Automatic annotation (TrEMBL):
Residues 7-64 form the HTH lysR-type domain. Keywords: DNA-binding, Transcription, Transcription regulation. It holds the Pfam family LysR_substrate. InterPro entries: LysR_HTH_N, LysR_subst-bd, WH-like_DNA-bd_sf, WH_DNA-bd_sf. The keyword Cell inner membrane does not apply. The keyword Transcription regulation applies. Belongs to the LysR transcriptional regulatory family. This is Hydrogen peroxide-inducible genes activator. SUPFAM superfamilies: Periplasmic binding protein-like II, Winged helix' DNA-binding domain. Gene3D superfamilies: Periplasmic binding protein-like II, Winged helix-like DNA-binding domain superfamily/Winged helix DNA-binding domain. GO terms for molecular function: DNA binding; DNA-binding transcription factor activity. One of its GO terms (cellular component) is protein-DNA complex.
Amino acid sequence: MAATYLPTLKQLHYLVALREHGHFGRAAEACFVTQSTLSAGLRELETLVGVVLVERTRRVVRFTPLGDRIADKARRVLREAEELGDMARAAGRPLSGEMRMSVIPTIAPFMLPRILPRLRQDYPDLRLFLREEPSAAACDGLHSGRTDCVLLALPYSCGDIASATLFEDRLFVAYLPADMANPAPMIPAAAIDESRLLLLEDGHCLKDHALAACNRPELRAEATMMGTSLHTIVQMVDNGLGMTMLPEMAIEAGILDHTGIEARPLDAANAVRRIALVWRRASPRERDFQLLATALAAAR
């Protein structure tokens, strides 16, 4: 029987690094090898599979369609290999070693400053690498193996995941007093002026949570979706450009400090989002993620 030659994990690592960085020099730095070593490893991989995976020019690194598919598969293979080590760590000390967590932008600046010092104190052997990115990118990174878990706001369709809810985060209507005469203690959705509503751009799940809570189709059609961050939207509201909806955690963190903005709870059936830690179903580190979720909920 003829010998079967398989790609090495090192070759797959080179391929994934080149896909992520789009540049041979930066990919080589990420892999802690010389550019010539990385290039030679990729040529060996192409010779092994018998096809060109990467088109090389002086200025551009372009993956072939097959190269893209193989790079996607290589990322999953590398993640499976890493999980062998995860299984060993999970059997030893809890919450130790490296963990990569994505956090969405409407959570990261308000929650992380409170929880990270407590985590460092309680779990000094945990090396938590953080990545801030929108919900869709975070879920893609989770399933591709780029990250291990995601701090996310639910409901959100994130594929086949397991999750642990940390707490509920109420939605508030934020406005200048001149925009709302004699407001009630809780603002009904019907009182929101759709022509004055400012929301985050597409890709931020908070926008969808706010619109779903209001249950007014005309809001989706008329609202101005242009904010790139909650801090940007707050500045727009403070400059008289409209009103918005904010999560309670942002208000508690002081996002309205030094503004003239007032905020009152939204009066609606689903005026909350669930803050949760999510991970790939059947991950060998599920016990660690459950423990991390408990620690995050306690530290907030």
